[in-house]
Amino acid sequence: MGHNRLSIIDLSSEADQPMKSVYADAYIIFNGEIYNYKELKKKLGNIKLRTNSDTEVLLEGYLNFGIDFIKLLRGIYSFAIFDNRSEQNVVLGRDPSGIKPLYLYDKNGLKIFGSEIKAIVPSVRNELTVNENILKTFLNLGYCLEPYSIYNEINCVNPGNVVIIKEGRTFKHDLTSFNFESSNKYSYRENTELSEEKLKTAVERNLIADVEVAVALSGGIDSSLIYAFANKINSRIKGLTIKFDDEEYNEEEIARIYSQTLKGNHEFVEVDTELNLDTLNRILLNFDQPYADSSAVNVFYLTKATGKVTKVLLGGDGGDELFNGYPSQTWLTYIYNLGKNKLLQKGGAFIFNTAFRAANEIHRRSVKRISDLWNDKPHELLYDWHSWFPRKSGYSGGSPFLFDTYPGVEFYNTVFSTNAPADFRHTVVFDYFRKQMLSDYLRKTDMMSMLNGVEYRVPFLDEDLTEFALTIPFSQKSSLNETKKILRLIHSNYFPAKTSKAPKKGFTIPLDTSLSKDEFNVIRENLLKNGNIVHQYIKKDYVEFLFKGLDNRESVQSDISRAGIYQRILMLYSLSLWNENK
User: Fold this and answer.
1) Do β-strands 103-107 and 110-114 pair in parallel, antiparallel, or remain unpaired?
2) Burial code of 42-81, b = ≥16 C-beta within 10 A, e = fewer?
3) CB 528 within 8 A of CB 543
4) Which of 70, 171, 196, 545 has the greatest number of CB atoms lying within 10 Å of its CB?
C-alpha cells in the first residue's frame, strides 16, 4: 500500500499514510475528506485517537462498527483498508456520487487497486487489452463510461459501493440510498426552503479544512450560490473566476456583479494566451485513457491558479444534474412523449424539412439535431443527445464511422442498468447524474485539480442534499421556459434578479483560437499519418474535412457548430495520443 498525501485536515506527520490502527492489525490509505469526522469521532466513545485527522476516524470507525459505519460518512472519498485482524481482507470504498475515483484490476486471481489507472498499468502492461465497446462509445461521447475503463481488465468501483477482497474473491456491497424514482409530497415553496437549508449545511461542511478554502466563481447560478453561503460563513473567502478575451466565453461581468453584491473577495484568472500544445498533451495524457472534454483546460488553469492561493476549491458541479439545469432535461421528455404519437411521427419529416429550409445556419443545426432525435427509439434518445460526435453524423452521403455505431447504444443502456428508473423523466436525471456527470464532469475536475495539488469539493453532491434533491418532483425543478426553478428562486434572494434569470453558459474554452495554426497543423499531421489508430474507426478524408472546417467554417456543412468541429478533432487526437503513450 502506498499513498501520496495532500494534507488538508491535520497537517502533522502523525496523520501521514499508510496509517496503522493503534488498537488492531489494520492499515488505511485514503483519498478525500470526511467533513463530519468530528461528529463521528464522538461515536467512538472512549477510544483514544492519536491524531486529529479524519483518516483515523474512518479507520477506527470501520474496525468498531464494520461497513455500516461508512453509511454515516459525509464527504468525498475513496479508501482502502487492509484488515489483518483475524483473516486478511482488503476493503475498498467509494463515495455515493463517485466524486473520488477508485480503479480495480482483476485478472487470474491478481487484484491491484488505485485511485488512478496510471498506478496500476506499469505492473500489468502486458496483460491489458483494449475494451472495444468503450473505445467506440468514446468516439461518440468523448469520455469513457464508468464503471468500465479503456482496458477490459480494469474497472471502477461503483459509486457508493464497498468491495471486500477475501481469499482472492470479491464481495460487493451497495450502500447508496439514492432513489431516482421517488417524488416527495412537499409544495414548491417547501421544497425550495428545504433545498436552501440543505445547501447551506452542505457548504458549511465543505469549508471544513486546516488550510484556506476558495470558491470557483463562474457566471452560473450554482457556483454563485455556493459563494454566497460561503461568504456568510467566512467573509474573507476568495472567489476565483476564469477570464477570456473571447466574449462568447467570458463571464467576467456577471461574476463581478456577484462579488460586488456580496462585497466579497474576488480574483480573475486570465488563461487566453497560456495554452499551447505541450500543455494540452499533458492534460490529455493525465487522464490515462481517451478523454476529450475541452473544458478540462479551464479546470486545469483554474486549479493551477488556486494552487498559488490554497489547496481547496469549491465548485458548483452537480447543481444542474440535481435541479434540472440543462434545458434538454425538460425538452427531451417532450420529444419522448410526442414521439409516441403515431400521427406526429408520420408528419415529422415534413415539419422538419420545412423548418430546415426556413431556418438560418444556427437554427438549422438545432432543427437537424432535433430531427435526428425525433426518429430515435426511446433507448437511443439519451445516447444520441449526449454524443459530441453523433452516430448519425453524415459525410459525403454516408457515415464518417468505419464501424457499426448501433451496438454503442445498447452498451450505453447496460451501464448501471440495475439501478435505472422506468419512468423516462427520471431516466433523464439518472443518465445525466450516473453517466455524463460521473464519467465526464467529475473525472475532469478531480484529475485536473489533483494534477495541480488542489482538492476540488462539490457541495451540491453532499449526500443529504443529493438524496433530498432526487425526490423533488420533476415539474417543480423546470419547465419548457425555465431551468432549475428552485435554485433560481433561492438565488434571487441574494443577487440581482437579472442574474437569477440569466441562461446557462457552459464552462468551455474556445480551443480553436487558443491553439495556434502551427499547433493545429501538428495535430493534423499526427491524425493523418499512416498507421494512426484513428483510421481504424474514422474515414481518413473525414479527418481532413474537419480541419478544412476549422480553417473555414463556410466550407463545411452547417449542422456542425464551431465547437463541434474542434471538439471532434480533440476526440480523435485524444485517442491517438493515448494509443501512442499507453
Assistant:
1) antiparallel
2) eebeeeeeebbbbbbbbbbbbbeeeeebbeebbbbbbbbb
3) yes
4) 70
Tell me, what's the pLDDT at 243?
Answer: 74
- The 10 Å CB-count burial string (b at 16+, else e) for 484-493 is bbbbbbbbee
- Under a CB-based contact definition with an 8 Å cutoff, are residues 334 and 424 in contact? no
Output phi, psi for 457, to 5 deg: -110, 150
Same-fold call for 13-174 versus 188-324+446-500 = no
SS3 breakdown of the chain: % helix, strand, coil, rounded to 5?
Answer: 50, 15, 35
pLDDT along the chain (582 residues), means of 10: 93 95 96 97 93 97 96 98 94 98 95 97 96 98 98 98 94 94 96 98 97 92 97 94 67 88 88 80 98 93 88 96 94 80 52 47 63 82 94 90 97 95 94 98 97 97 98 95 96 94 72 89 97 97 92 63 90 98 94
Which residues does residue 165 pair with via DSSP β-bridges, in sequence order?
A: 90, 170
C-alpha cell at 496: 440581482
| C-alpha cell of residue 131 | 475494451
- As a whole number of angstroms, the distance between CA 9 and CA 17 comes to 13
Q: In what order do the strands lie in the sheet with 312-314?
A: 265-270, 238-243, 213-216, 312-314, 455-457
Q: Where are the domains of the chain?
A: 13-174, 188-324+446-500, 363-418+511-581
DSSP string, 479-522: -SS-S-HHHHHHHTTTS-HHHHTPPP------HHHHS-HHHHHH
Chain Cα centroid distance, residue 412: 17
> Following CA atoms 387, 388, 391, 392 in sequence, which dihedral angle do they give, to the nearest 10 degrees?
110
**For the sheet containing 110-114, what is the strand order?**
110-114, 103-107, 154-156
- Residue 250: what pLDDT? 67
Cβ atoms within 10 A of the Cβ of 579, count? Answer: 16
Q: What's the confidence (pLDDT) of residue 61?
A: 97
Q: Do residues 97 and 60 touch, judged by C-beta distance below 8 A?
A: no
The residue type found at 239 is: G
Q: 13-174 adopts what CATH topology?
A: Glutamine Phosphoribosylpyrophosphate, subunit 1, domain 1 (3.60.20)
Residue 581 in grid coordinates: 503513450
Quote the CA–CA distance of 229 and 152 in Å, as a whole number.
Answer: 44
Q: How high is the pLDDT of residue 512?
A: 80
DSSP state of 504: P
Q: What is the rounded distance in angstroms from the CA atom of residue 21 to the CA atom of residue 311?
A: 27
* 532 within 8 A of 554, measured Cβ to Cβ: no
For 22-130, where are the alpha helices, taking DSSP H only?
37-43, 54-65, 121-124
Three-state secondary structure call for residue 222: helix
Q: According to the model, what pLDDT value does residue 561 have?
A: 81
